[in-house]
Design goal:
Layout (H helix, E strand, L loop, with lengths): L5 E7 L2 E7 L22 E8 L2 E7 L9 E7 L7 E8 L4 E7 L2
Antiparallel strand pairs: 1-2, 2-5, 3-4, 3-6, 6-7
Length: 104
């Protein structure tokens, strides 16, 4: 199973600031081992953030995104202090990870 994401969500003046650090190797499929064998592509392909059941953020990633991606976005009016925000990613091999935190 993948390592937990580090999620911070804070609200100030009605705007929720969300920061997410995802642990993932994000292989492009272009690198080779010292023996010359290609390392297969393995990267996060989609990311979704939800407050309750409401989708508030969605993104598609590709092999050009760096290892352990950091995501920062703001929500205006769709969440408030005390709400729970969950972030889910799915990679190109079908692995998935979901973590959540409460907005402070």
């Amino acid at each position: 199973m993948a390592s937990p994401m580090r999620i911070r969500a804070t609200e100030k003046d009605g705007v929720v600031d969300v920061r997410v650090l995802m642990k993932h190797d994000m292989e492009t499929g272009q690198r080779k081992t010292p023996e010359g064998t290609a390392i297969p592509a393995w990267f996060i392909s989609t990311v979704e953030a939800k407050v309750g059941d409401k989708l508030v953020y969605g993104a598609q990633f590709g092999p050009a995104v760096s290892k352990d991606p950091f995501l920062h976005f703001k929500l205006n009016g769709s969440a408030k202090k005390g709400d729970s925000i969950s972030v889910t990613w799915v990679d190109n091999k079908g692995e998935t990870r979901t973590d959540k935190t409460d907005i402070k």
